[in-house]
Amino acid sequence: MTQKQLDESTAYLQSKGFEAPEIGIVLGTGLGKLANEIDDAIEAHYNHIPFFPLATVEFHSGKLIYGTLQNKKVVVMQGRFHLYEGYDFLDITYPIRVMHQLGIKKLFISNAAGAINLDYSKGELMLIDDHINLQGGSPLAFKGVSKYGDRFVDMAEPYDVDMKEKLQKIAKSEGIILRSGVYASVVGPQLETKAEYRMLKIIGADAVGMSTVPEVIVANHLQLPVVAVSVLTDECDPENLAPVNVQEIIEVAGKAEPKMVKLFRRLIEEI
């Protein structure tokens, strides 16, 4: 990644009409419908954007969408990148840097995750209060990182306190169950063993997934306020573990998605 590449990607999107978005949104597995609610939408497929990686997961559609939501300009990533696709941390977080260069002032992230905390149920939403990085690397561990921001980024409060509080109030007013907890990010793509689920519980994780943390680290590097919500798609009870059906995970995410869309729409309105 070079500044020249970031400039070329940004210039291409600006030439398509991506002008001064206020909010960037990353949509997770099975959570693409928010994009359908954007007014005056302009689309840019990843394979047309200079230096963008390509989404290779079949349920990630692979395009950036720009337009208006709740009277604010937004840019939405429909389809994200993962380590398990063979990308590195710079690839995964490249779009966050491009959206920041386009002008976003806030970042919303969603993902599908498994519930480690057995007080939480599949189909519920969890506000990520903190995270554990188990992906074995960092999107800031490269030569020349200091050109883009401080090398040693403080992560005492990686998720924006004000936006977290607003989401909790919105959820309460809408009658939506919004749990709060710690998200553990693993490499994947294989699901966890019973012993791994036990370990995750011991170290304090409430949910587990294969994304989000690299993007959040880069958002903090860019001093970009970020908030993230997990849709809990399965319950990871090591004592009663049934084989995971990926299609079922997508279906659960799809059913819970309207609640997440409602939360994000209200939050866009209020910030």
TrEMBL record:
Keywords in alphabetical order: Glycosyltransferase, Transferase
InterPro entries: Nucleoside_phosphorylase_d (IPR000845), Nucleoside_phosphorylase_sf (IPR035994), Purine_phosphorylase (IPR011268)
Protein's UniProt name: Purine nucleoside phosphorylase
Source taxonomy: Bacteria, Pseudomonadati, Bacteroidota, Flavobacteriia, Flavobacteriales
EC number from the UniProt entry: 2.4.2.1
Purpose of the protein: The purine nucleoside phosphorylases catalyze the phosphorolytic breakdown of the N-glycosidic bond in the beta-(deoxy)ribonucleoside molecules, with the formation of the corresponding free purine bases and pentose-1-phosphate.
Pathway: Purine metabolism; purine nucleoside salvage
Enzyme class: transferase
A GO term, aspect molecular function: purine-nucleoside phosphorylase activity
CDD domains named in the record: PNP-EcPNPII_like (cd09009)
Domain Nucleoside phosphorylase: 23-269
Protein family per UniProt: Belongs to the PNP/MTAP phosphorylase family.
